[in-house]
Amino acid sequence: MTALLVVVAAVLGLAVGSFLNVVVWRVPRDESVVRPPSACPACGHPIRPRDNVPVVSWLLLRGRCRDCDAPISVRYPLVEATTSVLFALVVGWLGASWALPAFWYLAAVSVALFLIDVDVRRLPNAIVLPSYPLAFVLLALASANPGGPSDFSALLRAVLAGVALLVFYVVLRVVYPAGMGLGDVKLSGVLGLYLGWVGWSAVVVGAFAAFLLGGVYGVALVVLRRAGRKSTLPFGPWMLLGVAVGLVAGPAVAGWYVGLL
Prior knowledge:
GO terms for molecular function: aspartic-type endopeptidase activity; methyltransferase activity. By secondary structure, the protein is mostly helical.
């Protein structure tokens, strides 16, 4: 059953990844993600359905437009493949669970926000703000666990953690505005919901991992002379990677640390 679910998740991830390519390109430009249909940016010819099969079409076309032979960025199939792998990994982590939709949504949003922040140094409200009610509803479904034992204490913990992480980021923004973007502040509450649903250890480890990973990356850039001490770097990707660490390794890391004490 789990193996079949992994396959289904991988296929679903390919389809979602194809849509995320549209989101990543259009949302920062305030364009509709529904209309017009996708077209080649070089010649403007609409993409045929047979040329819009995730990963496969790019390989068959050898990374070029069928009509004008313009190169198609390898990022498109990479986004599709990455989303597919993430969806499958979520199944491997959670198994058959009502929590799957919530964490699939987190995986999809993370891919989109990661790339947008890298591209334009912005975390669009159009993605972040709707994620609050969507994440809450999906986590509520996971807590209700139809057909099994419910655990609404996890949902309460998620809300408390979301508020706590949001307040923490607001304080950082007030204390040092240049070091924390407003988009990062808005995103923090969403990520806090997910971390809190898993547990307080995930919250602590996930929040700390974001600053640790971002700090190591920043120092590395300075050492390699790719950036200066006053350079501004997107922090959203590190928040998202920190959440991944907190969700997967939070309880284990917290247990290890407590053991040292």
